[in-house]
Amino acid sequence: MREVKAELQRGIDEFNAGEWFEAHETWEEVWARCGRTERFFVQGLIHCAVAWHHASRGNLKGAALQAEKGARKLAG
After folding, report:
1. How far apart are CA 19 and CA 21, in angstroms?
2. Is 10 within 8 Å of 26 (Cβ atoms)?
3. Contact in structure between 39 and 75 (CB atoms under 8 Å)
4. Which of 9, 54, 14, 7 lies closest to 28 in space, CA to CA?
5. What is the signed CA dihedral for 36, 38, 40, 42, rounded to 10 degrees?
6. 7-53 pLDDT, tens per residue?
7. How far apart are CA 51 and CA 20, in angstroms?
8. Which residues lie closer than 8 Å to 4 by C-beta, 6 or more apart?
């Protein structure tokens, strides 16, 4: 569990530094090992990271779609 928390935090740090693709990759590793309830939350984080990655590359349609998916998952 400690390792998962450290990886989750690493993804947060990457996201906050604008390293959205890296955060996505880190959180996918976490997602693969989570239980069902936690997986939904981590998927939401992944969608948000992908949304910001798309936005940074000018893909606003893709960003909006991913942000919507992330918001739905994070809302439960």
Report:
1. 6
2. yes
3. no
4. 7
5. -140
6. 999 999 999 999 999 999 999 999 999 888 899 999 999 999 999 99
7. 9
8. 30, 33, 34
